[in-house]
Design goal:
Layout lengths: L5 H20 L3 E3 H12 L2 E7 L5 E6 L6 E6 L4 E8 L17
Antiparallel strand pairs: 1-5, 2-3, 3-4, 4-5
């Protein structure tokens, strides 16, 4: 399954508030190259979406079409990447926004 959505990326904004705490309190951070290599080798995940968060941090969503696993990472300016969230059953949504003035 493959799911990349604006909603998922937008949901990471909340996770960004936790990223600083995650970086300071856990061993879930490493240089970006090592994190990306691990996500690819172990889970078959590739980058599905990207955005800029607070303090110019890079927010990325990785996912696998084959396994349905997904991971959200936050990379700080110094190149340190922290795992913020992960899960299963990732799918791509192509939702259409309601037109202006509609009651949807």
């Amino acid at each position: 399954m493959k799911k990349t959505t604006t909603a998922l990326l937008a949901g990471t904004v909340l996770a960004l508030n936790l990223a600083g705490a995650a970086r300071a309190d856990s061993g879930h951070c490493a240089p970006r190259e090592r994190v990306v290599e691990r996500l690819t080798a172990k889970f078959g995940e590739t980058r599905q979406s990207v955005g800029i968060g607070t303090n110019n941090s890079l927010v990325e969503v990785f996912a696998s079409d084959d396994t349905g696993t997904w991971t959200i990472t936050v990379t700080q300016a110094d190149g340190t990447t922290c795992l913020v969230a992960s899960g299963q059953a990732f799918e791509t949504l192509a939702e259409v926004l309601p037109t202006a003035g509609s009651d949807a």
